[in-house]
């Protein structure tokens, strides 16, 4: 998710997200589905939040 996407979600769903934690990974939205580089980026950035 990019920061612009995060801002749109927060604006549209503000009341639903009051207690939710939303993390912006700053990965540009220009990768194909299951692109190996995208998978590598996701694994690297998400792992610190999953344990």
Tags for this model:
single chain, 51 residues, mainly alpha, 2 helices
Write up what this structure looks like.
The protein has 51 residues and is mainly alpha-helical. The chain has one domain. It has two helices and no strands. It has helices spanning 3-12, 36-50. The longest helix has 15 residues, at 36-50. The mean pLDDT is 90.
Q: What is the helix/strand order?
A: HH
Output the structural class: mainly alpha
The span between the termini is 20 Å
Main sheet properties: none
Secondary structure: number of strands: 0
Low-confidence stretches: none
Total number of helices? 2
Mean pLDDT, as a whole number? 90
State the helical fraction: 40-55%
CA radius of gyration is 13 Å
Write the layout of secondary structure elements.
Blueprint: H1 3-12, H2 36-50
Task: Describe this structure in a few short sentences.
The protein has helices at residues 3-12, 36-50. It has 51 residues and is mainly α.
């Amino acid at each position: 998710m990019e920061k612009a996407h995060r801002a749109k979600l927060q604006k549209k769903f503000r009341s639903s997200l009051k207690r939710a934690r939303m993390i912006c990974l700053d990965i540009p939205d220009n990768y194909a589905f299951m692109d190996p580089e995208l998978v590598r980026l996701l694994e690297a950035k998400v792992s610190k939040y999953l344990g």
